[in-house]
Amino acid sequence: MNNLEKTLSIIKPDAVERNLQEEIKKNFIDNGFEIKNEKKIQISKSEAEEFYKVHQSKPFYAELCNYLSSGPIVVMVLEKNNAVIDNRKLMGATDPTKADEGTLRKKYGISIDKNSVHGSDSIENAKIEINFFFKS
Ligand code: CMP
Asked: What is d(CA 69, CA 23) in angstroms, rounded to the nearest whole number?
């Protein structure tokens, strides 16, 4: 059944710093995702706070926002059938030490903070996150 979806992916500062963006993008393409839009940017701390506001009550919120704004990131709109769930499967568990073999966070992640990639966790949040970076 056709269930074409879009999701937002971020290649985080730790991966861009190691120049892994082309390799990570190849993983998406090899797994059937189409990159519909992409840009390399650096966001401010207040933009990171807005982006991650669902986590504002968490103890790691300040560090998370400092980190996402600490260097260049690559933001992408990915499209395929079931893109949201399939991207989450491809990324693996948030903590790279708990991620399955073959997943992006297992292959490239350094720590729970420096876990190389972000992906939207629901169709509703994908729409919000895509609009955050690529205002329609
Ligand atoms: P991400 O998918 O970008 O969404 C929120 C981020 O918070 C998550 O990836 C992690 O990089 C980061 N984070 C830091 N500490 C934790 C934690 N204890 N639990 C969950 N996420 C965490």
From this structure: 22
